[in-house]
Design a protein that fits this description.
It is built from 8 helices and 7 strands. By secondary structure, it is of the alpha/beta class. It has one domain: NAD(P)-binding Rossmann-like Domain (Rossmann fold), CATH 3.40.50.720. The protein has a 7-stranded parallel sheet, sandwiched between helices. α1 packs across α6, α3 runs parallel beside α4 and α7 packs across α8. The longest helix has 29 residues. It is globular and about 50 Å long. It starts with 6 loop residues before the first strand and ends with a helix. It binds NADP nicotinamide-adenine-dinucleotide phosphate. The site of NADP nicotinamide-adenine-dinucleotide phosphate has 29 residues, from α1 and α4.
Length: about 240
Amino acid sequence: MKLQGSTALVTGSNRGIGRSLVQELLARGASRVYAAARDPKALAGLVAESGGRVVAVQLDITNAAQVAEASKLVDSLDLLINNAGLLGSGGLLSDSTEAIERDMRTNYFGTLAVTRAFLPAIEQAKGSIANVLTVVALASMPGLGGYSASKAAALSLTQALRGELGKRSIGVHAVFPGPVDTDMAREITLPKTSPADVAKAILDGLERGDEDIYPDAMAQQVGGEFAKSPKNVERMFAAM
Ligand SMILES: NC(=O)c1ccc[n+]([C@@H]2O[C@H](COP(=O)([O-])OP(=O)(O)OC[C@H]3O[C@@H](n4cnc5c(N)ncnc54)[C@H](OP(=O)(O)O)[C@@H]3O)[C@@H](O)[C@H]2O)c1
């Protein structure tokens, strides 16, 4: 897809990968970027540096009224990036059911709700959808069992929509980052890629038309292994 002159919406754009995605979309000539966040005040800096191209949108992806309201702002959308996500739960046996449900509500049901709401605008533009998943959507990492399950559900959603929407000329892309240096990965001690580099790699993948995007070195290694043997990836993550 062509990003120059495009209109895009990024959820969870106030920090981390989402913020970098907005900045990189602007650098590549997007004409309008709807930057969505639970707290639109946190978007003031992005709006100020955008020369009028960033529109701040209040959007908690688990809030049906806000999702409906936000979708009314946009008639035509070239790119929806479902980036907002939550790593609120850890092990399936050790963490609370509430925390596990919250991850599922955000990462799966929130992504689905936003996609459904913006679909008429995406269809209008014959646009694309990119869902930011994770390598632990491919196989579960037991210490992150709740999060992994919610992202695996979001991967299944991505595949289902790709099948349905491909026939309507809408591209659906899955993004599988490894560890990225954001608030979410604060506790993770593995080497991490910067959110700016990950944002660039995601947009490079979209511009090339890649269905599955592995935007960092660890992601590429896991993706390569997964192509050969999903079982090996399951065993590797189980041992971590
Ligand atoms: N960091 C990593 O290592 C890593 C690796 C693989 C995949 N990912 C994925 O990358 C995406 C971005 O994560 P990040 O690393 O940038 O993490 P982050 O810095 O923790 O940012 C998460 C973003 O999601 C937003 N968010 C959470 N729940 C939301 C909700 N209900 N409605 C709207 N926005 C919500 C947060 O908003 P608030 O500021 O309001 O909380 C924040 O903007 C996520 O989908 C994550 O799962 C991250």
